[in-house]
Amino acid sequence: MPRHIVCLTFDFDTQSGFIARGMTTPTALSRGEFGLIGAQRILALLKAHGIRATWFIPGFTIESHPRACEAVVRDGHEVAHHSWAHIPPAQQTRAEEEADLVRANDAIAKLTGRKARGYRSPSWDLSDNTIDLLLWHEFLYDSSLMGADYWPYRARRGDRAELGKPYRFGEETTLIEMPISWSLDDHPHFEFLRTPTAVLPGLQSALTYTMHPYVIGRGYRMLALEGLLKDLSAAGAVFMSLEEAAAEAQARMFAPPSS
Ligand SMILES: [Zn+2]
């Protein structure tokens, strides 16, 4: 009997993404602050449905809003890695990326008692070093790539993309990729954002499984999320944290053949 596994994930950015983009006026920061209210509502909804989820929490949020993060831990959700300062790895040197990774992992260990097993990059843009660093720091899974939709796969390193030459896959690693998609993220659908280089329209009707408390936490969106959870439950969905789903994928899909 196939199971419909559902992993709800919440990227608890609060103000970090705005600060990383240089958007530090009071109004911009207040948008991130709303994530604290959104998170309370989401935790209450998840508790009412008995659902455990995965919260990707930047070190910034852990150190700025410790009580809000303790509530996530207290309710039994997985806390996974989402950088310290919400700067995309593609914009960092290897040394900068690793320093940020270690600092955020220390904050998670202090909050939860153990280091993160899962990683999601800010703004979903890995560097050429990220997979190496995640393996070195003993992560189980990444959730930043789009090479599949509902099927976990092994993350590769050393792919070669050169203009005018055929594409070459690099080696598969032991890191499990839990793939994502912008079309399954609440931010582009719901949240208007104006930056120096782009305008994201937002305000479209859709519902997704990658969510931000400051986006999904608004009233009517919470009603839509509640409706989705009810529909999924009625259809027999099994809710898991990403860590549990990645561990299951590792055991069932990627285990070495028994001799
Ligand atoms: Zn984020």
Question: How would you describe this protein?
Answer:
The chain has 259 residues and is an alpha/beta fold. The protein is built from 10 helices and 12 strands. The protein has helices spanning 16-20, 26-49, 59-64, 66-74, 94-112, 130-136, 186-190, 213-216, 219-234, 242-253, and strands at residues 5-6, 9-11, 54-57, 78-81, 118-119, 141-142, 153-157, 171-177, 193-194, 199-200, 210-211, 238-239. The strands form 4 sheets. Strands 4-3-2-11 form a 4-stranded parallel sheet. Strands 5-6-8-7 form a 4-stranded mixed sheet. Helix 6 (130-136) links the parallel strand 5 (118-119) and strand 6 (141-142). It is globular. The model has no long low-confidence stretch (mean pLDDT 91). It binds zinc ion. Zinc ion binds next to loops.
N-to-C span: 27 Å
Q: Would you identify the regions where 5 or more consecutive residues have pLDDT less than 50?
A: none
**What's the mean pLDDT score?**
91
Tell me the number of helical segments per DSSP (H or I, 4 or more residues long).
10
Please state the oligomeric state of the protein chains shown: single chain
